[in-house]
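Page header: ASSEMBLY MODEL / two components / 844 residues total.
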Amino acid sequence: MQKDISMILRSVSKPGRYTGGEFGQVVKDKNKVDLRIAFCFPDTYEIGMSNLGVRLLYGALNGMDEVWCERVYAPWPDMEEQMRKNSIPLFTLESKDSVKDFDIIAFSLQYELCYTTAVNMIDLAGLKLFASERSDEDPVIIAGGPCAYNAEPVADFFDIFSIGEGEEALPELASLYLEMKKNGTYTKKAFLREASHLKGFYVPSLYDVEYNDDGTIKSFEPKYEDVPKKVEKRIIADLNTSYYPKKPIIPFIEVVHDRIMLETFRGCIRGCRFCQAGVVFRPVREKSAEVLNEQAKEIYKNTGYNEISLSSLSISDYSCLHEATDMLLEWTNDAKINLSLPSLRADSFTKELMDKISSIRSSGLTFAPEAGTQRLRDAINKNLYEEDLMNAVRLAFEGGKSQVKLYFMNGLPTETYEDIEGIAVLAKHVVDEYYKMPERPKRPVGVTVSVSCFVPKPHTPFQWEPQDSLESLSEKQKFLGTKITDRKIRYNWHDARVSRLEAVFAKGDRRLSKAIAYAQKIGVRFDAWDEYFDYDRWMDIFDKCGIDPSFYANRRMSYDEILPWDVIDTGVTKSFLISESKKAYENKTTPNCKEKCSACGASKLGGDVRWCPKKK
Amino acid sequence: MVPEEEITPIRIKFTKTGSLMYISHLDLVRTVQRIMVRAGIDIRYTEGFNPQPKMVFTPPLSIGVESLCEFVDIKINSPMSTDEIKKRLSENFPDEMRVLAVYVPTTKLSDIAYTDYIINIESPSIDENTENKVRELFSGECTVVKASKKGEREINVTDYIKSLDVKSSGGKMSANVVLCADSENYLNPELFIKALREKLGILSGDVKNEYYSVMRKEMLQKDLKVFE
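Prediction written out in full:
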């Protein structure tokens, strides 16, 4: 480690965030590789190391002999201060080399509020924020992750966006880079143009955007004929044979998800109308129980972790769940390994499942009814009945659990005060259910009601929806507080101002980049962290940059408007989204993929899909 | 289960150097737990609802200090040769930790009384005369403020120094210092550095031109024999 880096680590909090050296990290000889990639996660080490996607890509890229991919996490402000004071540019954990000297810098954009942190990392690297201001010699800066599905607010900062699943796409991009370097055709410009021809890569500088007088988009067109009008997302066809990291890095310091993360399947059969993940990960593809079990055994042997978490968007919808848990439990108990199943759906929570996970030490279970009344649950296509929830909590209580956490949302389209009151009623019913049981555990019941605010997301049936105003959301939160009177119910709610900023960025367009650049300049970062979130400062920034946040967050868009993210094709058709949006206003549900195909369009992407009708 | 008294105790001596100096003791404990699992060493666990592996470590290393002599005592359920244990551990240690020896201990970890540190400092403020100043500083009372969870208190660093050997030349000094390290009297070597900084003005905070490292070289018993 360089002496100056070592010295500043003596004066910062949690220096273990910056040292690297963990078991499982990949170290190569930098003189023997042709392409060096710095993989940046714009949040702390503890958050970034918990991200499965980054681990997949790190492993997939390092699987290439000519490539060395290293990790970078956002330095916490105390570290940033030391780095700037002592002119130490952003460096990677593995080699401690300056990120600026890498060939490609890749960012994972997991949530909108990481934007300022991401661009600050570009600045800390000593590079110009705007792609147009960087030279041919500067690294190519790419980004991917869920935010790439509407990358427009940060489009001006990045050269390329990777759309969809990247385990195969990024190595393809790396190969293109290597090839162009080898045959001498590489210039950044030429590389970007070639990259736009690869499937799943969006090069924002190759598109012209024009606006109408009312601020909506007039046209969004590729500059050249060979650049695709729409960029179709990438998917991994077969999860049984695709790359999975079997020797993950084991952090020294405690991270958020410090356990074996086993991905069971991608996509979700449900189609909740507010949910972006439910759309962009379509079609549903599953991993077989055998493959899962083999991966679990191998990762356990390679890590020594004592907890396995089965990850998915909705674990009880995994069609091999019982088979898989049976196989796992055969050896995990003896090895003193805990099995955890996050993302349980109340309507598929069974006695059998309860028995299987009863070994888990926690005394609580979490369910997400999202809305308080059947009417609203139908409108958002949650497809969950109160009876399902009551069955689920009864099973949980019978299994000795006494704590239940319930997730809801305020501000959903079509919501009325009756729906909000319904949240209090539903929570009370859960409490009552507990005391109806003669054989309940000998502890008092605790029900936590956690209410977030609806943020309209691109590519969902609710993408055209305005977000509720800040005033209305605050009023609704207060109202619910007055309706929750039982002291066994704990009520907490999200800061509506955070959700509003999320909505601005989620539905934003390219004109927001100047606000983000300005925010970075005046020191805004870590917006997702309570201690740094400053709403008033953001309103001031928008004001100074001539941006009206309501235009993005609180305006109903029309079905025929050109949306900033129309350039991205998730496979799901706009007509399907429109029909879903209309059905919401009729309180009509749509069957899940397992029951009936609703022809969303995603099956065109192919893959070893579980529920889509097979192509003829 | 094998009765407690029939289980062979095993001692592992290892190093923790380089960037691992920034890994806390608690993190080290968790890391070693996982190493044991990976290495397939059938380590004894505590009984009860939340079984934890039984491992006893040497006095925690302060953050920022490297070590050539860390010890952990374990007990194993099924017999395994010390050579085999050493081989398996070596395969599973991260780069900056190294297994030095695995053996059946003849001493108790509580026999440790002192720690021998090598402290190297680079600073433009150091010259040939610095070594005399350092010797003089610790020939009498030398108080610094020690901050802990319980609050701040003044301590006399000299009280904790068993022996001191220091050499300096232009821009560099090296000190070999033996500090108390029993359960009642333990001095964090960082406080020794603090005394140099505060009383002699060595190390001003200029990270481009200054550097220091602290290495735990050996542990010593009360009779000053090297602890093994």
